[in-house]
What does this fold into?
Amino acid sequence: MSKTIIRRSAAVAALLLAAHGAWAARAPEPTKPVDVKRFYSGVWAEIGRRSMSLTDGCVAGATRYTPVSPDRIEVRDTCRQGSPSGKEKAIGGPGRIDDPGINAKLHVSYRLFGFIPLGRDYWVLDHDDDYTWFISADPLFENLWIYTRDPHVDAATRERLVGRARALGYDVSKLEFPAQP
It folds into this structure.
């Protein structure tokens, strides 16, 4: 293969990768500041999410945040297999706030089975001023989660939060609403 063909192939590959990045959907940039002490502490109930293999069969999802320092948060995600009284499934790891000042971008370094690294980025796209709910997504807007402090939300509240996710540009037809305890 000639050097010219290799160079042209590399140029075409680079253009395709750049184009993909430009066309790929992105979550809106978080702009609403998050109070680290109020937000990243305690338990949040997962009332809505996009289905993914990691959560197949999981209900009663929750995330516990424990502050370690101003920009470090310990994260523990749990759910129950099959029913709210089923066996607990959990994964956790250290989190790092990637946008100090706004505090809405969190990178968590999970360990599957205790040793397989799995990094995830979560962006808090919106939250209420009283910190009773929030909506987060990954940066590519493939996954979205709706959390509340109280796992028991009425239908009107859930629809209002789904409407907010829709207004942010997310395809809410992809959401599922697992049973809560």
About this structure: The two ends are 63 Å apart (CA to CA). Residues 5-23 have pLDDT under 50 and may be disordered. The first strand starts at residue 42 and ends at 50. The CA atoms of residues 50 and 175 lie 5 Å apart.
